[in-house]
Design brief:
Strand content: 5-15%
Organism: Acrocephalus arundinaceus (Great reed-warbler)
Largest sheet: 6 strands, mixed
Number of helices: 3
Structural class: alpha/beta
Strand order of the largest sheet: 1-2-3-4-5-6
Protein name: LRMDA protein
Distance between the termini: 43 Å
Helix content: 25-40%
Radius of gyration: 14 Å
Number of domains: 1
């Protein structure tokens, strides 16, 4: 397990056998670039600056799918990208579920997202409609 407080992850490339990485409470954003970590199965990015602005979160999720292929547990709690009614009163459970479908569409091997286990129904829904899920509700 590595505990890192940083804005740059350049030094991680020397830890190619890393399995768990906790990057909570940093200033990491959608431009986060991890080196290839083929054994990483747990990544927490709680309370950073990751958002769903434009296509940047899609790019981040595509990047994670490429560089951490063994990823099974991801947590994005406390980021703007993760709509949570405890953090933002304008968000509700439907917003959170749309976010889950979108992330699961991109990261198909996840077994846990945030604090919840991924269900078979969620995985099926993510395959069918995950690419079209938006986190923002129409006004």
């Amino acid at each position: 397990v590595a505990f890192v407080v940083c804005r740059s992850l350049e030094g991680l490339k020397t830890f190619s056998y890393l399995e768990e990485l906790i990057l909570d409470n940093n200033l990491l954003g959608n431009d986060l670039l991890l080196p290839r970590l083929p054994h990483l199965h747990t990544l927490t990015l709680n309370k950073n600056q990751i958002s769903f602005q434009r296509n940047t979160c899609k790019i981040l999720l595509d990047h994670l799918a490429e560089v951490v292929p063994a990823l099974q547990y991801l947590s994005l709690l406390g980021n703007i990208a993760c709509p949570n009614e405890l953090v933002c009163k304008e968000k509700d459970e439907d917003d959170y579920q749309r976010y889950r479908y979108f992330v699961l569409h991109k990261l198909t091997n996840l077994k846990f997202l945030d604090t919840r286990k991924v269900t078979r129904r969620e995985r099926e829904e993510a395959l069918i409609r995950g690419a079209f899920m938006k986190v923002v509700k129409p006004k």
